[in-house]
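Protocol step 4 of 6: structure prediction from sequence.
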Amino acid sequence: MSDNKMSIEFVSKSENEAFARVAVAAFVAQLDPTIDEINDVKTAVSEAVTNSIIHGYENREDGLVRIEAEINEDQVTIAIIDKGIGIDNIEQAMEPLYTSRPDLERSGMGFTVMETFMDALEVDSEKGNGTKVVIKKKFNVVS
């Protein structure tokens, strides 16, 4: 059973990346994170949402991105879900510096950033049916 949970859904406009980042940060604030911890979460969410918009929906603004977040004791689990084009090769996509959109001058560091700032990263994707990125982080909660 979770201590708390939330979900939000928004259209795949790049302007909504900031909204997603702040909404998740506000939800996580109940764990009384440090500035560094909250920035880690915001950065990882930003990368995942940006991936959904740029890669999943190929910058189309007619898709939906869903975020589900759940707090269990001292850990937050955040899922970023899209119904975009999916990822052909997850292992390749997770390699540092790999990008499927070199035409957009993308750095190919999104998954690496998520792995660096979070405690766990899971990616599930099916070509033509979208992608689900799950990131987790534990906090030093003082009772």
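Step 5 (inspection) to follow. The first strand starts at residue 4 and ends at 11.
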